[in-house]
Specification:
The complex is a heterodimer of chains A (390) and B (284).
Chain A: H1 3-11, H2 18-29, H3 37-48, H4 55-65, H5 80-90, H6 93-101, H7 104-122, H8 137-140, H9 159-165, H10 183-194, E1 200-202, H11 204-213, E2 222-224, E3 231-237, H12 243-255, E4 262-268, E5 275-277, E6 287-289, H13 290-296, E7 302-306, H14 314-317, H15 331-341, E8 345-349, H16 360-368, E9 373-375, H17 378-389
Parallel strand pairs in A: 3-4, 3-7, 7-8, 8-9
Antiparallel strand pairs in A: 1-2, 5-6
Chain B: H1 14-26, E1 30-34, H2 40-51, E2 55-59, H3 66-70, E3 71-73, H4 75-84, E4 96-98, H5 100-105, E5 112-116, H6 125-128, H7 130-135, E6 137-140, E7 145-148, E8 154-159, H8 167-171, E9 174-178, H9 183-193, H10 199-214, H11 224-237, H12 241-246, H13 264-283
Parallel strand pairs in B: 1-8, 1-9, 2-5, 5-8
Antiparallel strand pairs in B: 3-4, 6-7
Helix pairs in contact in B: 9-10
The chains are: A alpha/beta (390), B alpha/beta (284).
Chain lengths: 390, 284
């Protein structure tokens, strides 16, 4: 009966299996919960969701499926010319140029429309305000649509709607940005990553036990050793917009330092070139040639690059493209050299994944990384670490 | 069928009630997560109280092995007894110590079994309990007997998220995440613990409490249990609601903050904020 709901959940990548679905059916049969929508929501949640990171996703799917608004995402209620007109009216010439640089107004409008559809999906019945979150390109570019009300207020304000529309579990979603709150969780991911390798050591208590069991005949017992075999070379983009993220990353990795066998970190600006530096404040004075890095750290090191990869395309592709000095060889070449030496490499990017397509330089770096670019979120770190382990 | 509706001393939100009742009715373990201090462990005590069932608690530590929950065979004691020529050495059953699960499986009345802080244990721990929790039976190799649960206990498992639990394990559990209580729920919770508390004091205390929680950068945000302790202290010290209300920016740290802020760095953070406030006022 609820197979559609189940499939929708799967599509939204909430990990659900048949076993859980059957458990829900069983619970319904035994009429565990009452017959209100709320009760059903709670029951379905307790049966199907096994991790608080997925509760938010679950709530959104639930709202969509049981409100019969599946189509809302496609048929946008906002007329295109109206949007354009609105943008024209509100944006200055300069801002428009910035938007062009981001991939044009069309792209921006697409994003805006998509945002609206999303908002409709989870905000059904409420007023539809375009978000002013800090990461939104609209906010960031000085275009502040707060107060612009789009669409009709459908006035469905039942209590039941609120329960899953409140989105109280948003912070627990694995795809949110890395902040101080979830840094601990991220650390745990790194630890799991660090605990690799399987040598065997003597298990003394078990040996005594089994020797005693053998009536005195020695019986040696071994257990896999837990040691930290992982060596990490961390390269951080520093300067400008990256500073906040860099601090978060440094904290994260230095907190995890004890878990790694080796952790070396260097800084670069925008794109790695022939020099890197270890102390961000003295980057002109104390530089380390990248070739030296390649010699010092063998290929057993796993390379983690952290950067927003947002720059002018020529900074990657052209000799002399670097903004701080004259580089004889393009950044591209240097990045390739790194990747050849360190086959296990990932790039963590603090820019939300959905904007990657729109920025040319991110696209270029992602291609150079052969798709091994991951967002700097819990989920992204998870995927990156898994990728490094392969 | 017994149902759990919260008790006189425990406020259960609607979603928690549904989750607990589903776990009771379908006889599946319930995994409870949530911020520290939101009453995960207490929940087991309250369920046991509400169902008038015995409570068996198994506290998990980093060294706990799944086998210890079933039984332990004391081979060393047997070896020693064998060397001393004791008669009891011939019955291997004398050296088998029953674990918490065994205890729960053979209880006369359907008990509530609390497996507390499962995430503290080794990463393989939950996997080692899969079959036991699913089928509620296990085999004792030494005595060649199978222990089967007389009636499936109500199993409550708590986790603080220190380790990820394996999917196979999660699939066998129901799951509930205790959200931090909103103001309304919190008012009810405090009322349960401090009946007859003056409305004015409660209102101000909650105001300060949620403000403290909202300060960005706190290492350990105070939770329900801290609030309740703090209110107890406020009552003992006879602090009036007015003192809480004045909220002089220069005295940003709430009175008796020791109950709320458990971390030296957090106290320093508050002191720094207070200092900045004073400077701002001094300058402008």
């Amino acid at each position: 009966m609820f197979a559609g709901f189940f499939l929708e959940l799967k599509r939204a990548r909430v990990p659900v299996s048949l076993k859980e679905y059957l458990a829900l059916m069983e619970a319904m049969e035994k009429s565990v919960a009452g017959f209100s929508v709320d009760d059903f929501y709670y029951l379905a949640r307790t049966c199907l969701v096994k991790d608080e990171r997925n509760i938010d996703k679950f709530g959104r799917v639930f709202g969509q499926v049981f409100k019969g608004i599946e189509g809302a995402a496609e048929g946008s209620p906002v007329p295109e010319d109206w949007l354009t007109a609105l943008a024209e009216k509100l944006l200055s010439e300069e801002e428009k140029q910035q938007i062009e640089a981001m991939g044009g107004l069309d792209k921006l409008l697409d994003a805006l429309r998509q945002r609206l559809a999303e908002q409709k999906g989870r905000h059904e019945g409420g007023s539809k305000w375009i978000g002013t979150a800090g990461t939104s390109p609209f906010g960031a570019k000085g275009y502040n649509p707060e107060g612009v009300r789009i669409g009709q207020d459908e006035g469905r304000q039942g209590r039941a709607v609120k329960v899953w529309d409140k989105r109280e579990f948003k912070n627990l979603d694995g795809e949110v940005q890395l902040g101080t709150r979830n840094i601990k969780l991220a650390l745990r991911r790194l630890r799991q990553f660090a605990r690799e390798g399987a040598a065997e050591i003597l298990d003394l208590p078990d040996t005594i036990r089994s020797t005693a069991k053998n009536a005195g005949w020695l019986d040696l017992r071994l257990v896999p050793e837990r040691h930290n075999a992982v060596k990490v070379l961390l390269l951080l983009d520093i300067g400008g917009s990256m500073d906040g993220h860099v601090r978060a990353c440094e904290e994260l990795f230095s907190a995890a330092r004890a878990e790694f066998k080796h952790l070396a970190h260097y800084y670069f600006h925008n794109c790695p070139y022939e020099h890197l530096w270890q102390d961000a404040r003295r980057r002109q004075a104390e530089r380390t040639p990248l070739v030296e890095l390649l010699r010092t750290y063998d290929q057993a090191y796993k390379l983690i690059l952290v950067g927003d990869a947002t720059m002018a395309p020529y900074e990657i592709s052209d000799p002399g493209g670097a903004i701080e000095h004259w580089n004889a060889e393009p950044g591209e070449t240097w990045l390739r050299r790194l990747l050849v030496t360190y086959p296990k490499a990932v790039w963590l990017n603090p820019v939300p994944e959905r904007y990657w397509q729109g920025t040319q330089s991110i696209d270029m770096i992602a291609k150079l990384m052969e798709g091994r670019m991951f967002p700097l979120t819990l989920d992204g770190i998870d995927r990156a670490m898994r990728r490094l382990q392969r | 069928m017994a149902r759990f509706e919260g008790t006189a001393t425990y406020i259960a939100t609607e979603d928690l009630r549904v989750a607990v009742n589903a776990a009771i009715a379908l006889e599946r373990p319930l995994l409870v997560k949530g911020e520290p201090g939101t009453g995960k462990t207490i929940l087991a005590h309250e369920i046991a109280k509400a169902l008038a069932a015995p409570l068996i608690t198994w506290h998990i530590k980093s060294t706990t092995k799944a086998q210890q929950g079933l039984y332990e065979y004391d081979a060393v004691a047997r070896l020693r007894d064998g060397q001393l020529g004791e008669a009891r050495v011939h019955d291997i059953g004398n050296y088998i110590a029953r674990g918490k699960l065994w205890e729960a499986f053979t209880a006369d009345q359907r008990p509530v079994l609390l497996i507390d802080e499962i995430d503290k244990a080794d990463i393989e721990f939950p996997n080692d309990l899969l079959l036991e929790l699913d089928r509620m039976e296990f085999f004792v190799y030494e005595t060649r007997e199978t222990v089967v649960a007389r009636q499936r206990p109500v199993v409550l498992i708590t986790s603080n998220n220190e380790k990820e639990l394996p999917d196979a394990f999660l699939r066998r559990c129901f799951f509930h995440y205790i959200r931090f209580p909103d103001r309304e729920t919190m008012t009810r919770i405090v009322a349960v613990h401090h009946p007859g508390l003056k409305q004015a004091l409660l209102k101000e205390a909650l105001e300060v409490f949620y403000e403290v929680r909202d300060v960005p950068g706190l290492k350990k945000r105070p939770s329900t249990s801290e609030l309740i302790d703090w209110i107890k202290l406020l009552l003992v010290e006879d602090i009036s609601p007015e003192v809480l209300r004045t909220r002089d920016p220069a005295k940003l740290i709430p009175p008796l903050h020791g109950a709320l802020l458990k971390n030296e760095q957090d106290v320093q953070l508050f002191e720094r904020l207070a200092f900045l406030h004073r400077r701002e006022r001094g300058g402008g």
